[in-house]
User: What shape does this take?
Amino acid sequence: MKRVLVLFLTLVLVLAMVGVANAESEKILIYYIGRDANSLFWQTCNAGAEQAAEDLGFELKSLNPQAESDINGQIDMVVSAMNAGAKGIALSPLDTKALISTCKEVMDAGIKLTMIDSVVASEDYDVAFRTDNFAAGAASAQHVAEAINGEGKVFVLTAVSGAESCNLRDQGFISEMTENWPNIEVINANEQVNCNNDVNQAMSIVTDVLAANPDLKGVFGDNLYACKGAAVAVQESGMDVVVSGFDSDTDVNTMLEEGSILSLTQQRPFTMGYEAVATAYKLAMGEEIEHGIVDTGFAVATKENMHDPEIEELMLS
Assistant: This one.
């Protein structure tokens, strides 16, 4: 009798172990594909994705281009995710147009696709999680306009010309100035100037702009690299020019506190990453979620409010 009981308990244990092994092997595979492996913003976004995988219990694989200019590399990553059997992909497209056909292939294959920060210029995705970048750009413009007393020349420096998020920030900034501040001129309103997401290029461009426009009053850099390069160029020039930008790290946070930067718009990258992969997983599991864009919000940090708890928690360093 004891021997039978031992054999029975052994069988139960083996079956339980097999069940666990099967459950592990059948975990839903979701891919996170970001924009820049070296960016603190995108590292934070990736951390949010990893937290979602831990909380919800799915398998996550993360891929990140080494630079935001590596569009072809990102396309290859999406194809690799498809070939690996991903049931869902959370993607931040590096270019609004170049990724369209690849995203269509993903959707046609029945793979769930969510987007982070930017969307492709088509409806080939399920749900997107991003900042209202147009509104955020307009908010930056308001701060600049008030700081220069509503008059003078300003310059807009974009980081990546094909990035939807940057384009929308620029459009929001220019629209706010054009519509509500008649005595402010955006000197390159009809010509996008791109620093290729490079601080040194941003410094060089803004240095030349300052030399050609000694009466310039403000510069808007639409991401961390554009803003940082612009701020350093202004510092080195000794000119009285305000700088407004996006995102944060230790360097620009210090410049904000010292007054070298007027404002830094803060986003919620952890939330974007978390919600995008969590939603891809839920969709893959059969949950119905309405197609559309979810605004994850933003806040404008200034020297005066940067240590407020609700602002400070958003500032990356």
User: Anything to note?
Assistant: Confidence is low (pLDDT under 50) at residues 1-25. The CA atoms of residues 6 and 12 lie 10 Å apart. The radius of gyration is 23 Å. The chain has two domains: 27-131+269-286, 133-266+302-312.
